[in-house]
Amino acid sequence: MIASDSRKDAKTSEAGADAKLWLRMFRKMTTIRLFEEQVNDLYTRALMPGLAHLYIGEEAVAVGVCEALTREDYITSTHRGHGHCVAKGAAPDRMFAELLGKEAGYCKGKGGSMHIADPDTGNLGANAIVAGSAGIATGAAFSAKHLKNGRVCVCFFGEGALGQGVLYEVMNMASLWNLPVIYVCENNMYNEYTHFTETTAGDIRTRAAGFGVESDSVDGQDVRAVHAAAAKLIERARRGEGPGFLLANTYRFTGHHVGDIARDYYRSKQEEQKWKGERDPVKLFTDWLLAQGVADQAALDKIHAEVKVEIDAAVQFALASPYPNVDKVAEDVYA
Ligand SMILES: Cc1ncc(C[n+]2csc(CCOP(=O)(O)OP(=O)(O)O)c2C)c(N)n1
Question: What burial letters (b/e) apply to 68-98, b meaning 16+ CB within 10 Å?
């Protein structure tokens, strides 16, 4: 009797812990979605210098993976990096400040959208060079192994990076040296304006298998599936069992960058509508949370409203923040 009661208690608290995790994931995915919508708004109102590459449609990948990491674990990111940054714990106000070139930004306004780094949350930085962070991620895993600090590193990249030699050089090293690094390939199907099947021969996972790197593939629109697959590879790497490769199949809902608005010459409106209507990761997760009774609509609406307040305040903070003084132009610049 006591045993069965304590088993019941254990089960209930496990369900409670899961519910906490699911709702945290929902909050993070919502934060990324609203963050990106504001980025687009700032761009179209000519308030943001330069361009940005939105992560809308891919939120489940960053959140599913980063929720399987500790704060001390490392990530590296890409030109489409806002989602990774938020998922790893960065503050939206300092991110917006960076996008607007303000001194309060993560790189004091000198990095912009494609170069945000946040060492406090283990984010070693975004990189505008396709596959540019593969070496940095593998080096971070090398250091973690030799410092024996138990950290792992996740290297996010788009499938366009599969065409870059550096990825294969470092996967070879990671396998030979048994490094705690997980290469997460976000296959959103397009390298800029070209379908990946026109640039990528063969089966993607066999590229990892060729180096003896353990791999898995997952529906990148399903945050729970991403989380489960990522957690397996991450914990395996943490135990010292070597690198991993996760192929997350996903789709970017908007243009390659915010200025890519006339897209039907490379992909059809029907294709986009189908993904947005049937495969929206936030909507799919919302439906699951409601169906499972993890939360009711009012609770999810409340989270959404709280995130909206946070994002709106973050934008206002960034708009009101000062630019760096001109005498700071050469500070923190290395050549
Ligand atoms: C080495 C290098 N070559 C070309 C570019 C120009 N470029 C920027 S994004 C991009 C496509 C990237 O596609 P993918 O890696 O699949 O990422 P996605 O944009 O789909 O997230 C290219 C070719 C670059 N930034 N770096």
Answer: bbeeebbbbbbbbbbbbbbbbebbbbbbbbb
* β pairing state of 190-191 and 181-187: unpaired
Per-residue pLDDT reduced to its tens digit, 240-275: 999 999 999 999 999 999 999 999 999 999 999 999
Report the C-alpha gap between 187 and 251 in whole angstroms. Answer: 7
Torsion angle defined by CA atoms of residues 221, 224, 226 and 229, in that order, rounded to the nearest 10 degrees: -150
User: Locate tokens 């943001």: which residue?
Assistant: 48
Beta bridge partners of 215: 245
pLDDT for position 333:
82
Nearest partner of 281 among 104, 7, 16, 65, judged by Cα? 65
Burial of residue 7 (number of CB atoms within 10 Å: 0-12, 13-18, 19+): exposed
Report pTM.
Answer: 0.95
Tell which one of 192, 199, 275 to mutate to probe ligand 1, the residue whose CB is within 8 A of the most ligand atoms: 192
For residues 171 and 208, the answer to whether their CB atoms sit within 8 Å is yes
CA distance 126 to 72: 17
Q: How many CB atoms neighbour CB 241 within 10 A?
A: 13
Using CB distances shorter than 6 Å, the residues near ligand 1 are 53, 79-80, 128-130, 158-161, 188, 190-192, 256
Residues 6+ apart with CB under 8 A from 151: 70, 72, 73, 74, 122, 140, 144, 180
